[in-house]
Amino acid sequence: DAGVHSKAWYAATCDRRMAEDALYRSNRDGSFLIRKSSGQDSRQPYTLVVFYNRRVYNIPIRFIESTRQYALGREKSGEERFDSVAEIVENHQRTSLVLIDSQNNTKDSTKLKHVVRVS
């Protein structure tokens, strides 16, 4: 189960809208949670939802069947891979996560700082 179910940042019953609403309410850069992906695709089981600069980013978490690992976003060469979703979170609490805004073609970065609970 990727080690997510016992974690404070995992919003098990949360959909995209609920996640985005909760993050807008938190209104703190680096606020985040992880939810199940809407698509119910085994290759993209979760989504990392991050608030930064008054915007919410939904970043897919991919499961890589061949290595049984996880990675963020679209597949790219030299990407970071992790053995669990918890490792992704722990890593990006220490090192910045690049946030790409495809609509405005801008890049930002933030660390995962504040766990948001969906009520």
UniProtKB/TrEMBL annotation:
UniProt xrefs under PROSITE patterns: SH2
Gene Ontology annotations for the cellular component aspect, listed alphabetically: cytoplasm
Keywords, in A-Z order: SH2 domain
PANTHER family from the UniProt entry: B-CELL LINKER PROTEIN (PTHR14098:SF3), SH2 DOMAIN CONTAINING PROTEIN (PTHR14098)
BP GO terms, sorted: cell surface receptor protein tyrosine kinase signaling pathway; intracellular signal transduction
Signal peptide stretch: none
Residue ranges of every copy of the SH2 domain listed in the record: 9-116
The protein's name in its UniProt record: BLNK protein
Originating gene: Blnk
InterPro entries linked to this entry: Immunoreceptor_sig_adapters, SH2, SH2_dom_sf
CDD domains cross-referenced by the UniProt entry: SH2_BLNK_SLP-76
